[in-house]
Design a protein that fits this description.
Helices cover 27% and strands 27% of the residues. The protein has 446 residues and is α/β, with parallel strands linked by helices. It folds into two domains: 38-334, Glycosidases (TIM Barrel); 342-445, Sandwich (Immunoglobulin-like). Helix 8 (183-194) links the parallel strand 5 (155-160) and strand 6. Helix 7 (131-148) packs parallel to helix 8, helix 10 (248-256) runs parallel beside helix 11 and helix 11 (274-287) runs parallel beside helix 12 (322-332). The radius of gyration is 21 Å and the shape is globular. Mean pLDDT is 89; it is low at 1-32. The structure holds ligand G3I. Ligand G3I binds at residues 77-78, 120-121, 160, 205, 237, 266, 305. Ligand G3I binds next to loops. It catalyses: Endohydrolysis of (1->4)-beta-D-xylosidic linkages in xylans. Residues 32-330 form the GH10 domain. The active site is at 266 (nucleophile).
Amino acid sequence: MKLTSRSVSLVPIVATASAAALGAVLVVSAPASAATTLGAAAAQSGRYFGTAVAAGKLNDQTYVNILNTEFNMVTAENEMKWDATEPNRGQFTYSGGDRVLNQAVSNGKRVRGHALLWHQQEPGWAQRMEGSDLRQAMMNHVTQVATHYKGKIYAWDVVNEAFADGGSGGRRDSNLQRTGNDWIEAAFRAARAADPAAKLCYNDYNTDSINPKSTGIYNMVRDFKSRGVPIDCVGFQAHLTNTAPSDYQANLQRFANLGVEVQITELDISGSNQANAYGAVTRACMAVRACAGITVWGIRDTDSWRTGQNPLLFTGSGAKKAAYNSVLDALNAGGTGPTTTTTTTSNDPGPGGCTASVSLNQWDGGFVATVKVTAGSRALNGWRVTTTLSNGTVTSSWSSNRSGTSGTVTFTNVDYNGAVPAGQSTEFGFQGTGSGSGLNPTCAAT
Ligand code: G3I
């Protein structure tokens, strides 16, 4: 049996006796020594540090230098939105989005997709639509854009800002909402079908504390989880003034406890207490295992949508601000890392066989496992993955058919991911309560 290992971080490496017996390598990420860039500092705990990028600024050398040095995740600030990608019904243009994505990918960064459906920046033709015709156009938009970027997006903001401000805790009125309350789950299902590998997020603002709006979203996520609607993450935009709410971390944690990843997606903070507030937000993310990373909404103060408020980490001329040092120090101080473990088993597929590896995100009381199925030297027409789950219970799974919830659990391909070319991979996932430790997936061709 040939032993292979893939890992996200190599410090420290822990291989248990039983894992070794299965031909598995277990890698646990942990903070290392102080790093000198935001991306590298975040990566020490398995997190990312990202920024919004505007395609029109990719010719600005100061901008690009900071982007390439400091960040390892990118969000297109406007270029993947509905008005940009489908200016006329059924006519898709991806030039701006592709430009941002290609610059990121060719410099080793990952990309968050933003945003498939949002009541703002709808193209004019969609603004004038209602009812079932609009619903059809919405779902087609989700499917087309997620398909165009299939396999290239770390996480999509599938739906953006659908909840109302104020005390109602309910949905915001919009032509999207008026197509029926189920539009959000329909969008998530369409996005999952189009790009099963992307994490699917709900993203909103004014959700930085435990308040009626964030609680409305919390209730939706809990409902989606209980009914198997495919949602993987919640984005907290975090457009803040002077301070982070005292219950910022507690709010992130309550969402994490539902079994979703939490991401800080559009961070910017104005005011004289800016540096402290940036530190507080960063420490809160570091203290929540399921907080996967932070994205700031622009690079230099002059790049910000908050004109004149100077809410970012770099001055207009590209110098690091005190807020930058606060963030870097908080990232370097470490924290409760998402316990990301990568286990590889079944290492000698032989002709016609396959391997399975699992990446596990574990937090107090729950986990998400992402399993990669890789074909051997011959293409697969179908596959079956079997694993033991000793101390946990599967509550939902995606991109596979499942048999069992604990003990021995078996997953088989669904229609669209059974055919895997030689040497290529496909992914499925599952989540559960309890512990996902000790997963030992083995793969067989069917
Ligand atoms: O590109 C055109 C330009 O050709 C034209 O001359 C100019 C005239 O106004 O407009 C330019 O487009 C502007 C675009 O930004 C690019 O600069 C739009 O008018 C302007 O509305 C748009 O603003 C964006 C805003 O979303 C739209 O609501 C901001 O850049 C962007 O930072 C902001 O981002 C949002 C997130 O997507 C969701 N959360 C809130 C966040 C801040 O509002």
